[in-house]
C-alpha cells in the first residue's frame, strides 16, 4: 500500500460517514427551523442569538476546509511563518468586534451590509459595493463547493461530481429548512468536531514524534522551514492579514451575525472567536513538520494533513480527517448560502425589483433564493474549473478596497460618500494591476492603501455631515 | 535565524492547549446561556 492509499478511505466508509453526518445536519436544521418564524426569524434567527452560539458560529464559519487542509500544506511549503501567517486571519475577527457592537447599536433593525452602505453612502456606492460583495460571496461559495468535491474525491475516491453534489445538496437543504437558526445551530456542533479533531491529531504528533525529533529531522532535511526570516512567508503574512480584514469587514456573512446577536453579544463573540481561532492554523499546520521525522513520502502537498493523520492513526486517522473536513466545509457553505441569499433577497430582489414586497412574500422568496443560489453554484462547480478556485486569490484586491469605506463609514460622520465609491473602484483596479504585474502577495496591500488614501483625501477636501439617525430608522426610510 | 526547539515547543504547546480548552469554554457558555434562557 503506498502513502496516498493509506490516507484514502474506501468509498463504502466514505459514503457511510457522509450519510450519517448528512442526516444529523439535515435533522438538526429541520428541528431548529421549526421556530424560525417570519422574515427576521428566518434571516436573522430572531435577533436574539446568545454568546455561546454566537462565538461558535463566528469560529466555525472562519474555519473552512482551507484552514484544516491548507494550514499543513502552508507549513510544509513556508514553514513556521506559513502557519503563523495563516493564524493572522484571526485579526479580522477580532477587529470586527468593535464594528459588530457599532453595527448593532446604529442599525437595530438592519438586515444586510448592503442596507448600511445604501443608507450611509447612497445608491451609487451601494451598487459598487454590491458588485464587489456578490462577486466575492459567489466566488467563495463556488470555490467551497468545488473544494467539497475535490476533498471527498481525494479522501474517499468518491467521484468529484457526486461528492460535490451531495455536500452542496445537504447544506442547501438544511439552510432552506431552518435559515440562520439552522446554520448557527449546526455551526456549534461543527465547531466542537473541528476543535476536538485537530487537537487529537496534534496530541498524537507531539507524543508519537516529539519536538526534539521533529526539530532535528526538519533541520537536517528542510532547514528553511524553521527559518524565521523567510521573505516569501513574511510577504504572505501581511497579505493574508489584510485579505482577512477585508473579507470580514465587508461580507454579509459577518454583518448578518452582528444583526442576529442579542444586545451586548457581538463584541464579546467576535473577540472570543478570534482568540480561539488564532491557534487553529498552528495546531492543524504543525503536523506537517513531522513529515521528515516520520519519513513520509508526500506526492501532493495539499494531502499532507491526511497523510500524516493516516501515518499516526492508521485508518482511524483518515476517518478523523474526513469528518473534520466535512464539518469545516458544511460550516462555511451554509453560512455563505444564507448570507449571500440575504444580500440577493434584500438588496437585489427587494432593493431593485420589489420595493413594496410584503414580509410574507420575502420570507417565501428567501427560501427560493437559497435553492436558486445552490443550483447556480452547483452548475458552476460541475465542470471542475480549477481556475474558478483561483478566483479567491485575486478577490483580495476587491475586498481590501472595502476596508476603509466600511470602517470610516461606521465611525466617521464626515466620510465623503462619493469618495467611498471611488475608493472601492480605484482600490480594486490598482490592486488587480498589482496582482497581475507584481504578484498575488501585493494585491490586497495596494488595494487597501489606495482605498485609504482616497477616503482620507476626499473627506479632507469635501467632508460630509451624516445623520446617524438615518441608520436607526432603516425600515421607515425604505417604506 | 532558526527557531529553537524550546520556542517551537512553546508555540505549538500553547496553541494546542488553547484549542483543547476551547470546546470546554464553548460548553460552559452554552450551559450558562441555556440556564439563563439566552441561547436564542
Structural account:
The complex is a heterodimer of chains A (479) and B (40). With 479 residues, chain A is mainly alpha-helical. Chain A is built from 25 helices and no strands. In chain A, helix 4 packs across helix 9 and helix 9 packs across helix 16 (304-313). Chain A starts with a helix and ends with a helix. Chain B is mainly α. Helix content of chain B is 80%, strand content 0%. The mean pLDDT of chain B is 94.
Number of strands of chain B: 0
Topology order of chain A in helix (H) and strand (E) letters: HHHHHHHHHHHHHHHHHHHHHHHHH
CA radius of gyration of chain A: 22 Å
Largest sheet, strands/sense/barrel of chain B: none
Question: Which key terms come to mind for this protein?
Answer:
A: 479 residues, mainly alpha, 25 helices, B: 40 residues, rod-shaped
List the helices and strands and how they pair.
The complex is a heterodimer of chains A (479) and B (40).
Chain A: H1 3-6, H2 11-33, H3 38-44, H4 51-62, H5 65-87, H6 90-106, H7 113-121, H8 123-156, H9 160-208, H10 211-221, H11 231-250, H12 252-260, H13 266-277, H14 280-285, H15 291-294, H16 304-313, H17 315-353, H18 359-381, H19 386-389, H20 391-400, H21 403-411, H22 417-437, H23 440-461, H24 469-472, H25 474-478
Chain B: H1 5-36
Task: Please sum up the structure shown.
The complex is a heterodimer of chains A (about 475) and B (about 40). Chain A has 25 helices and no strands. With about 475 residues, chain A is an all-alpha fold.
Amino acid at each position: 500500500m503506498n502513502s496516498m492509499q493509506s490516507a484514502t478511505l474506501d468509498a463504502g466508509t466514505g459514503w457511510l460517514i457522509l450519510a450519517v453526518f448528512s442526516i444529523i445536519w439535515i435533522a438538526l436544521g429541520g428541528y431548529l427551523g421549526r421556530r424560525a418564524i417570519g422574515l427576521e426569524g428566518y434571516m436573522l434567527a430572531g435577533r436574539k442569538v446568545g454568546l455561546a452560539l454566537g462565538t461558535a458560529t463566528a469560529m466555525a464559519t472562519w474555519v473552512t476546509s482551507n484552514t484544516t487542509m491548507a494550514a499543513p500544506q502552508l507549513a510544509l511549503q513556508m514553514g513556521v511563518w506559513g502557519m503563523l501567517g495563516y493564524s493572522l486571519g484571526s485579526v479580522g475577527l477580532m477587529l470586527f468586534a468593535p464594528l459588530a457592537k457599532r453595527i448593532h447599536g446604529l442599525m437595530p433593525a438592519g438586515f444586510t451590509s448592503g442596507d448600511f452602505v445604501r443608507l450611509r453612502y447612497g445608491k451609487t456606492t451601494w451598487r459598487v459595493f454590491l458588485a464587489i460583495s456578490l462577486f466575492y460571496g459567489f466566488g467563495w461559495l463556488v470555490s467551497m463547493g468545488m473544494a467539497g468535491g475535490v476533498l471527498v474525491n481525494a479522501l474517499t475516491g468518491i467521484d468529484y461530481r457526486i461528492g460535490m453534489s451531495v455536500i452542496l445538496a445537504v447544506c442547501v437543504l438544511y439552510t432552506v429548512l431552518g435559515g440562520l437558526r439552522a446554520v448557527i445551530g449546526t455551526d456549534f456542533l461543527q465547531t466542537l468536531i473541528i476543535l476536538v479533531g485537530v487537537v487529537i491529531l496534534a496530541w498524537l504528533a507531539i507524543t508519537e514524534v516529539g519536538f526534539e525529533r521533529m526539530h532535528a529531522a526538519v533541520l537536517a532535511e528542510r532547514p528553511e522551514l524553521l527559518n524565521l526570516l523567510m521573505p516569501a512567508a513574511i510577504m504572505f503574512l501581511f497579505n493574508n492579514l489584510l485579505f482577512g480584514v477585508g473579507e470580514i469587514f465587508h461580507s454579509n456573512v459577518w454583518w448578518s451575525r452582528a444583526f442576529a446577536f442579542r444586545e451586548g453579544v457581538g463584541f464579546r463573540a467576535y473577540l472570543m472567536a478570534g482568540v480561539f481561532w488564532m491557534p487553529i492554523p498552528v495546531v492543524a499546520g504543525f503536523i506537517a513538520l513531522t513529515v521528515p521525522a516520520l519519513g513520509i513520502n508526500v506526492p501532493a502537498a495539499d494531502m499532507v494533513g491526511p497523510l500524516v493523520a493516516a501515518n499516526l492513526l492508521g485508518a482511524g486517522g483518515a476517518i478523523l480527517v474526513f469528518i473534520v473536513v466535512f464539518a469545516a466545509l458544511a460550516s462555511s457553505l451554509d453560512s455563505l448560502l444564507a448570507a449571500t441569499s440575504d444580500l440577493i433577497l434584500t438588496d437585489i430582489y427587494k432593493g431593485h425589483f420589489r420595493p413594496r414586497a410584503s414580509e410574507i412574500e420575502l420570507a417565501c422568496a428567501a427560501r427560493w433564493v437559497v435553492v436558486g443560489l445552490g443550483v447556480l453554484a452547483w452548475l458552476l462547480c460541475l465542470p471542475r474549473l480549477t481556475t474558478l478556485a483561483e478566483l479567491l486569490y485575486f478577490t483580495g484586491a476587491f475586498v481590501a478596497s472595502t476596508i476603509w469605506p466600511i470602517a470610516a463609514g461606521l465611525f466617521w460622520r464626515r466620510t465623503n460618500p462619493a469618495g467611498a465609491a471611488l475608493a472601492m473602484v480605484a482600490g480594486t483596479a490598482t490592486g488587480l494591476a498589482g496582482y497581475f504585474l507584481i504578484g498575488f502577495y501585493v494585491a490586497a496591500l495596494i488595494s487597501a492603501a489606495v482605498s485609504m488614501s482616497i477616503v482620507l483625501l476626499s473627506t479632507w477636501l469635501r467632508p460630509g455631515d451624516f445623520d446617524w439617525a438615518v441608520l436607526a430608522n432603516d425600515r421607515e426610510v425604505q417604506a | 535565524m532558526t527557531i529553537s526547539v524550546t520556542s517551537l515547543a512553546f508555540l505549538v504547546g500553547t496553541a494546542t492547549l488553547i484549542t483543547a480548552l476551547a470546546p470546554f469554554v464553548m460548553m460552559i457558555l452554552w450551559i450558562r446561556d441555556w440556564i439563563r434562557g439566552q441561547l436564542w
